[in-house]
User: Fold these one by one.
Assistant:
Number 1:
Amino acid sequence: MSENIHRYTTDEISKLGHTLIYLSQKVGFITKTKALKLLYFLDEISIKKYGIPFIGLTYEVWQFGPVAQDVFIDLSDNPVMLKDYISIQKEFVHGLNNEVTVIEPLIDFSDDEFSDNDLEVLNYVIKHFGKLSAFDLSEITHNSTSLWFKNAKENNLLESFNNGLLNSSNFLIDFTLLLDPYKTEIYKNYMETKQLERGFNI
């Protein structure tokens, strides 16, 4: 599976923006890397539990874990897709001896796009992963039982990643590896409908 989707609906962008606002408010100081990891866990946990993604982002298998490329790009400089929701600040962290990209909300959080299940998953991720560092979160995604590891191994990427010969790929995380046949059907039907909506930009 290597085809990527680079369009989201207005509702998806709103939900993504308000998710980042909520994470920044509840977690506190949140960097681009940590936000990307938490977004991944939101989708993975929601899919595993309900067969339905939290947002439905597309994650590529990169060296340091699963990455939603469109969001990575939008959080790297001045946001375009998320410009109405967040701003990006560069801050030097002495403990890391490095400059990091920090996400700051521009508006108040709204739960209009969130179901009760969404809010349950969101608060679960904050409780269990919110206090971990971006490095710690990356270690979790690299566990030998993780989807990232399974997809990287299946596509012969591990050696190149480990040897520093490759830092990204266009192979996609296959969430159906998490699911039984019943939830796989739910997930596939949901994503097919979502792709049609994205095509019409609903």
Number 2:
Amino acid sequence: MKLFITFTKKTLFAAFAAVTAGLIIIGQLFTIRAGGIDGSTNALRCEYVSGLGYSIDETAVSEKEIVIPEVFSDVYAKYNDIQKKAGFDLTLYKGKKAVVYTYRLNDAEDTVINLIVSDKYIIGGDVSSVRIDGEMKPLSPE
């Protein structure tokens, strides 16, 4: 016994459209997971910070390679809480390499902005006072 399945052009088009839509959605999920904010160049990182309302010295003070820990200590968990307030979540990047770029604010010489970049995307950051009694705030619009 043979079984034949026939598709009309309409059915084939609908199937193709569904597969295409699915691929687009999956692509968007990966972009969201990656933070979706291109941080691949210094100009793009500075543009992002500027868009938040901060004025920075556009030359990074430092670049430091890190690895997001597989298991978060209490300190890292609290730091991730700061990230979540700004719409980031470092738990998605456990075990991944990243680079922290540090920039000085132009209008507050004792304050810096740190951007965490992994696979060319900004995945986190903070605004930190470098004073001994300084504070760390989420990277959000000023």
Number 3:
Amino acid sequence: MGLITGLVDFILHIDKHLAEIIQAYGMWTYLILFLIVFCETGFVITPFLPGDSLLFVVGALGASQALDVKLVTILLTVAAIGGDTVNYHIGKFIGQKAFQIKDSRLFRKEYLEKTQAFYEQHGGKTIIISRFLPIIRTFAPFVAGMGSMSYWRFISYNIIGGVIWVVLFIAGGFFFGNIPVVKNNFTLVILAIIFISLLPGIIAYLRNRFQNSSADNS
């Protein structure tokens, strides 16, 4: 319970905690940020790590020159692309075995079939779209590795999605993070970013529930 509370506090007050990390660790902060983004995108067991909000705060701190914004943008882009690449290969080599585990709540065959159907409907752009959907962006490359998507096709979408995701959120923080109304209400801004990021998934869930309810009543 304490770990969850600490994680929630870190995410909601990430601007303060990241500033403290910079003061305490200096240049090592770049490695810490690299590892957070790499793990958030690279391992299906760490989807809870901050992504969008972290990038936004990094941009804001870059604007105040607490971080080298060019260096951190390059490093986190590499981390995002590298994380997805590792996740793809993990899915390729152990994904099918994971879904064959009996009584597994996390890896179930129906999840694989639904995700593969989503890939068939939306194609490679799924890798780009998933960058902006928390949790889903952690599972998308894993499932892509399990499916029939070739590595070279995957890596092209991975690079495009990784660059757009990192640059867009860091730029957002750089240009808007230090505006007084944003800076003075940063917790609300972080909550808004999290809510907006989750909104497409919420809409899709409600739409699916509505369609199922309509089918049951017909």
